[in-house]
What we know:
This protein has helices spanning 12-18, 58-76, 92-101, 105-122, 138-150, 179-185, 224-236, 250-265, 296-302, 305-312, 325-349, 365-375, 380-399, 406-427, 434-449, 453-468, 472-484, and strands at 23-26, 31-34, 42-47, 80-85, 154-157, 160-163, 200-205, 220-222, 240-246, 270-276, 279-281, 284-285, 321-323, 487-492, 495-500. It is an alpha/beta fold. Mean pLDDT is 91; it is low at 1-19 and 284-293. Bound molecules: zinc ion (ZN).
Amino acid sequence: MMSRSSNPRASPVSATHSSPALSLYNTLTRRKEPLEPLRAGEVRLYVCGPTVYSWVHIGNARTFTVFDVVVRYLRYRGYRVTYVRNYTDVDDKIINAARETGEDPGALAERYIQAFEEDARALGLLAPDVSPRVTEVIPEIIDLIQRLLDQGVAYTAGGDVYFQVSRWPEYAKLSRRNLDELRAGERVTPGEQKREPLDFALWKAEKPGEPAWDAPWGRGRPGWHIECSAMSERFLGSPFDIHGGGLDLIFPHHENEIAQSEAAHHVALSKVWMHAGFLELENAKMSKSLGNVVQLRQALAKVDPEALRLFFLSSHYRSQLAFSEDALADAEKRMEYFYETLQRVDERLGNRGVKPGAVHGDPDVHLRAFEQAMDDDFNTAGALAALSGLFGQMNEYLDRPPVPDRAMLARTVTALRALVPTMGGVLGVLGTNPATWLERRRDRLVQLRGLDRERIESMLTERTEARQAKKFARSDAIRDELLALGVELRDGPAGTQWKVRS
Ligand SMILES: [Zn+2]
């Protein structure tokens, strides 16, 4: 193995601290800023999680994948990351969904939390360090609301509690919306008792058949926004480093979180605000309310999870991304190319190991390009370009070796191969055994094309026998027959492998 002692990650925290290289776009300041954690070597991150009334939407899956990669890269850079992502398990949508199925709202929420965790695991999302639920932080929520009442920025009305926006001069500093325009556009919903149109509910008075908790101002349940203020404060303290979510949460959700937390504590809620762009389905913003429902679960039934990640990471996280079956098919082909390359590299290198010595060129150039892209506001598109460069070079060394020295060639390919788990690990891809991945891909294509697997395998057996008997005309004829079915063969040291042509 090539020595990796020259790797700049040898003492990442101190290196990062002496020269902050990582910059990220802060929605609050509308600028890219160097990452300067509030506590040395530590990043505290809060991401708004799903409201569990249905299966997770594919658009939300993109957002969660983005922050999954943010966490992975920060850890790679040597930071100790505390990652909190909540579950909204009390909400109008949950209550309505439970009414339709005749379930208890808590049971319905629990069912969808389990489903979310299954899907998240399938997509390769790291489990957050803490995944709090609203129902676990009711005492914290009540304390926070009481504090806002005590400070005169909230008021009770008929059992509800509202935040009074006009009492908080910094309101709209994140979204930079015009308050007069907002006021003109807002309407008080019948049944709400708020004083001004922009005021928002911190607590909703108990209604028959709805979950409710006791509070000093009367039984009820929390409004949506207050939960994230309470949970981030409990698990991360305030201020913390990064608050993330989808672009659609900037207003009003994140604006309201800021108002609640900062009016209560007079310190910033979060230093940096990061927002992931929309996933577009046929040029329409994908959201459950518009009816363009595509769930992560449906997507995972059709496409490989690593290919789905590759697709999500193919454009910058802040840009919109157009979702299409074609784009997913392309991502899966790309993944197939990566795994086929790894399989060829592993076959070529075998288990012999390599003697120490010089390598050809500078294999680490790919890792530097990768880090440079990721340091620039988590530019995963650039990182994938660096990964493609690495694979392109591995293929070149296999097909057209630029060095006659076989030992040096083996060392060089070994050094390049060693970068794959490093770069792939940050993106959450390429962690599967190549043969296993390629077999799964083949099975999916066999099913998709309606091919007869048994027939293919018996033809392969016949061909192997023909070859052993040196009946090459027969073996070539079988090869052509398979090719006509869309099945390609590759004769290698480990025998004949077959794939479905994509
Ligand atoms: Zn939130």
